Amino acid sequence: MTIINILDYADSYLRAAIKKYGGYPSSSKARFLSTPKISEPEWYYPAKESVNAYEIGKQSGSYPNHSSTSQNFNVPIRYPVSTTSSTKTINGFKTDKSISKNLNLNLGINAKIPNINIPGGFEIEVKPGAEVSRNVKTNQTVDFSSTSEKTQNTNDTPSDTTQSFSCPPNTKATYIVIYFGGEPKVEVTAVTDIIGNGSGIGTDPTTGQEKSQRNVLATLDYSKEGQAGKKYTMMVTADQLATKIPGYNPPPRVEQDRSHNALTIHSDLIVNLKEDFAYEIIVKFENLSYSTLFNEDLFIYRFDKNHNLLIEKTVGSLFETNLHADIFYEHIESELE
After folding, report:
1. What is the per-residue DSSP string for 54-113?
2. Could you tell me the CA-to-CA distances from 279 to 87, 177, 302, 311, 313 in Å, in that order?
3. Out of 88-102, 196-210, 285-299, 303-317, least confident range
4. pLDDT in tens, 128-137
5. Where are the domains of the chain?
6. Burial 165-197, CB ≥16 within 10 A → b, else e
7. Distance between CA atoms of residues 327 and 295, nearest Å
8. HSE-CB of 284 using CA atoms within 13 angstroms
9. Is 241 helix (H, G, I), strand (E, B) or coil?
10. Is-contact 196 219, C-beta < 8 A?
């Protein structure tokens, strides 16, 4: 997690600039001349995301019905991985969400968003299907001298249950349950601008000359040797914080926009997307009166983590099936042989 305390960087820059010109900085900390302006992040999304869940476990079984009437049978659902989410919020930023489990999978999101310690903050919300949204809080008061953190833990493990199916007369039902887990990462980037919102007369840190300046971010008083009692003021604009000078190193992943006196901050959001389904049940029904494949049918059922049925698909006779069903047929046969 990258923490960018703008006031700390401004203070460090101003002290380095004052010493550069032979001055003695004040013992007090630099201050914002007025509340800085921070732009809403401009997000850059991938052109297209391909989100495919991957298999994390399977179970299989069968139910032969030799009677002349239909019989119900239950398929036990026991999710093979225990998942716990931890969401941390720092100064208004929903900074990370990670899920730990015994298979060491990474579900959820891991957001590398700079914590910009000025009034205002951002909340990042990731929804299924690679929809990334953000809300901007412009009236939030932030304590520049400390970091406020809040962590919330939640249990995401699907509960144990059973799914009931009906087996026709004189038919054998063979089933396989496929459990799905994490998905590939999607990288999203954002650009945020910070601009000083003050004006006044003070020393320009690039020239050492006193002049009238606009878009001032912060100031720091200083004195000069041999001029006791006389105070000077060093001023810095936001874009100057991106420049390295002796005694000062700029924040990571920033650049300057001199035309607007803006400090441009680049952010990364790495999203490990969660599919909207948790497991799939594939059932093959085989008529016990015949041995021909004409009497074998496949059915596919897809459920979310709350065990709600999302998709119910009848594939039909294997001689009438498509490639998708063929793949599942081969899969179930290899598992149950």
Report:
1. -EEEEEEEEEEE-SSS-EEEEEEE--S---EEEEEEETTEEEEEEEE-TT----EEEEE-
2. 25, 7, 6, 11, 14
3. 88-102
4. 333 333 333 3
5. 3-42+197-270, 49-190+271-336
6. bebeeebbbbbbbbbbbbbeebebbbebbbbbb
7. 18
8. 24
9. helix
10. no
